[in-house]
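Sequence in, structure out. Go.
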Amino acid sequence: MSNLTIGFVGLGLGLFLMALRVQIGVALGIVSFFGIAAILNMKAAWGIITAVPFNFVGDWNLSAVPMFLLMGYVASSAGLTSGLFHSMRLTLSRLPGGLGVASVGACALFASASGSSVATSSAMARIATPEMMKYKYDPGLASGVIAASGTLGSLIPPSILLVLYGYFAEVSVAKLFIAGFIPGIVSALIYIGMIISRAAVTPSIAPPLKTHPSFGEIVSTYREVWPLPVLIGGVLSGIFIGIFTPTEAGAVGAFLAFAIAAVRRRLTIQIIREALIRTLSGTAGIFMVVIGTVLLTRFVALAGVPGFLANTMIDWGTSQLMIILMIAVMYVILGMFVDSIGLLLLTLPIILPVVREAGMDLIWFGIIAVKLLEIGLVTPPVGLNVYVIKGAVGDLVSLQTIFKGVWWFLLMDVIALSVIIAFPQLSLWLPTLME
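Output:
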């Protein structure tokens, strides 16, 4: 059996193990170990599997992952994001579908602090969906808007997915963060445009509110949410200006979250303990998957799979757009069954050599890849964010209704993705200002 055949058989076995619900990192590690042993020998496989995880975990650049997780957990546990929806609701209540629009805005801001789609969706679903249902919003819209808007946490910086992509693609995480800002805002605005249009044409799905707050009431609510802009602005401005690296920005963000919580007298031992436990648990889960991916990268490189795929596509004369479309199909299909972090890390060893060979800008492609992962988060039959919403709202909305409501937003995601692909400068303009 040739090395190339061993590579493709190994990838197939990896997918099979994941279909059996074996943890992704474990599945990739097992396949990589035996694949390397088959290509080289057992001694070499033992050497790689013992050295690679240690070298990976000791990489200083990846310390940004636990720091940004800690920042988000402290901000959430200390209630620094609790007034977001209320403020957005009062500010945007006069618009058609105002509560839905407010939900998009609140999710975008929350996502900027948490960097996690799941955390954003879970928190906002408990607050916003019952409020929309109270005002007779269509259940599909009331739940679907949170499931879709929660995915903005993957694109709007700081983003754990962008940190991991930057590490494997060997590109600047700082530039990736800044590159994701405009596409994230564009995605949010497209969602808002759709909600306003649907509510204007069919008011029954989002009845207008009969009472409207005064200017003074709106201003007063922002006294509760000022910590979040301070936190986000402190992190992103420091990265953009070049005062500190993304790794240092994670530490600064975590420190600011602790400091603001302390100033507002919301920092308790229980909150610190809870944030640290959730950070350790989340980091361990992510690192398990990444270690498996690092081993897979070694395996497929030894097997020659990336080079074979890259040369095949080039020989076919495949254009950049066609390569992106093929990757998009793969992401949408696999995204139905694999979570976003697992899917990104599973595919990077295969697609990055192809993308490099095709001459694509790796920062631009990184934004495209994360946007594709956002779509996977709400795509049936798995759609992780949909199940997060269901778990948060309980029997208030059925799972079928949430999936039905999400379809409108999936269509908007396709439009947003098309815009990002058609206009690369939406992703690349801000990073050029950092040079």
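Check: Residues 82 and 166 are 31 Å apart (CA to CA). DSSP finds 21 helices and no strands in the chain.
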